[in-house]
Write a structure and sequence with these properties.
Layout: E1 6-7, E2 10-12, E3 15-17, E4 24-28, E5 35-40, H1 44-61, H2 66-82, H3 84-95, H4 99-119, E6 126-128, E7 135-143, E8 146-150, H5 158-170, E9 173-177, H6 183-195, E10 203-205, H7 210-219, E11 223-229, H8 232-241, E12 248-252, E13 257-261, H9 267-279, E14 289-295, H10 299-312, H11 331-346, E15 350-353, E16 370-373, E17 390-396, H12 399-407, E18 414-418, H13 422-431, E19 436-439, E20 458-459, H14 464-469, E21 472-480
Parallel strand pairs: 1-5, 8-9, 8-11, 9-10, 11-12, 13-14, 13-18, 14-17, 16-17, 18-19
Antiparallel strand pairs: 2-3, 4-5, 6-7, 7-21, 12-20, 15-16
Helix pairs in contact: 1-7, 2-4, 2-5, 2-6, 3-4, 3-6, 4-5, 9-10
Bound molecules: adenosine-5'-diphosphate.
Residues 150-152, 177, 179-180, 210-211, 214, 230-231, 234, 237 line the site of adenosine-5'-diphosphate (ADP).
Amino acid sequence: MKLKSKTNSIFIDGQWRDTDGQKTSTVYNPATLEAITEVAYGGKAETEAAISAATRAFQTWREMTGRERSRILYKAHELMLDDAERLGEILTTEQGKPLKEAIGEVKGAASFLLWYAEEASRAYGEWIPSSKKSKRLLVIPQPVGVVGAITPWNFPASMITRKIGPALAAGCTVVLKPAPETPLSAIEIVKIMEKAGMQKGVVNLVTGDAEAIGNTMLNSKDVRLMTFTGSTEVGKYLMRESADHVKKLSLELGGHAPIVVFDDADIDKAVSLALSSKFRNNGQTCICANRVYVHDSVKDAFHDKLTEKVEQLKIGDGTEEGTDLGPLINEQASHKVQKHLDDAAAKGADVVCGGAKWNGGLDGHFYQPTILSNVTDDMLVMNEETFGPLMPVQVFSDEDAVIDKANDTDYGLAAYIFTEKTSRAIRVSEKLDYGIVGVNDVFPATAEAPFGGIKQSGVGKEGGHHGMDEFLEMKYVSMGID
Ligand code: ADP
């Protein structure tokens, strides 16, 4: 993929800012560590200008009908699908995931635009029967206002449309700050919005100094809502700093997903699902399985089949046909995997397969898909988010005990259970302290359903009509009548 040495990446009030003469930062291909391009390194001034543009645009954007707003979102959805292959290539180049996953992500990203194009004209209010004859009570949904959106590098396209789709549908305007590792997908999405006919100032993009951009958003009384996907640490910071202006918040933070394989599970299916859950995007997904509990009576079959499949996974450059695992995003990510592995090994875990960095002639930070057995609850990997291809497997024998273990974490994003018994599926789903439970399913994220965590995994939902509710205020109008 050939890109220009410099790419304009700041879009304010319908204008791309030239990167010439401006401070820039480099975007790298994580598979080769080659520089792909330079993007603008914006900060306070650019963010203030973007917030002003979004504040002005809000006055007209909010006045449009839902149907008028939806036309632009429909168009953007179409444009995104038409260009899915090229967008997928850009995504793989900056993020590393296998091309087929990247194209899948682009299509998934487009699906959020479609869903919220549909929802734009369905922001219903309420007419509440009054207890007094002399009154009429109405609830009118209205857009929150200017939204500050901060997105991560692991899903550079879908995390953006999942936020700006409902925000725009609701009538909000947006200032978007993508992750510094993956600004190129964000630039492409904003270009699509422009091409789809979005009015100036409705969507603004600022790349650069995360702290300066974030703080400018936080310090602005005009930014009424912060929507963020990323680490729990930064999420807590945003939450604290949102207090001064009492901003609304929608936070999708870290997770530590358990998989529980019950004795009545279909083992072939369980192996294949566990594999997809753990190694998709090389383990760099907030809903990736971080730990696996397998019932004693099926442990051997599960273990053998899993090991055989993991050993067949192909590591390499995501653009190469047949690659299952691309690089980790950076050296720090690789260190974390190594730290969790070393800690587990020191505390008595066995490395069943993998267990080392992969050196296949590429400069990126690759790690072998790794299974650990004989893991204990005190190991880091059983408690901290690994965000890499490390899969610890522990054996259990009692349903209540394994539910307790699954719940014994500060996180509460996603949990998975594999069972063929409906009654168990319902019983255990109800007892798991998680925002999302996958029953024989490890791909719960979809445009039409509410995705979100509880506990320290976040607040608010993305997807479904619930995702749009985040960007709406319910105004109550109490009318006295004669
Ligand atoms: P990760 O460690 O996975 O990169 P982060 O939470 O650090 O997760 O990053 C997620 C997003 O938050 C990125 O866009 C990043 O630039 C941004 N970010 C990081 N620190 C801050 C901050 N202090 N204020 C605002 N945004 C931040």
